Amino acid sequence: MNVKFNNRDPVYIQVIQHFKEQIATGVFEPGQEIPSRRELANRLKINPNTAQRAYKEMEEQGLIYTERNLPSRITKDEAVIKVVREELIVEAVNSFIASVQSINIPLDEVLDLVKKKYETFQDEQGENS
């Protein structure tokens, strides 16, 4: 597990963001067991209380669940997973729009370019597989 922390956002929020990205991309599968809080803290070299706070927040958001004394697991709730994916997509689109609007590119030109680049990127990814 490799997380690059920045200095502007709280670490527990960055841990949650990492989990959301891993869930949305399918790296973490529904029902998959995740490291214990202590193990996560050791792996990421963060305070165990920070790991605990991240897990507590993720449980409240429905991203993970813990049954009795068993290890925590990624949610199996497809609706939650869909919301996480949409949230990440909206964040990326908002960031992109803010960048593009700052240089005054017409929408139709942006959409054409995005479509071409998206298709090119997919083709390149297919060749690299």
Automatic annotation (TrEMBL):
Domain HTH gntR-type: 9-77
Signal sequence region: none
Domain of life per record: Bacteria
Keyword entries, A-Z: DNA-binding, Transcription, Transcription regulation
Keyword Transport: no
PROSITE patterns (UniProt xref): HTH_GNTR
SUPFAM superfamilies (UniProt xref): Winged helix' DNA-binding domain
Keyword Transcription (UniProt): yes
Protein name listed in UniProt: GntR family transcriptional regulator
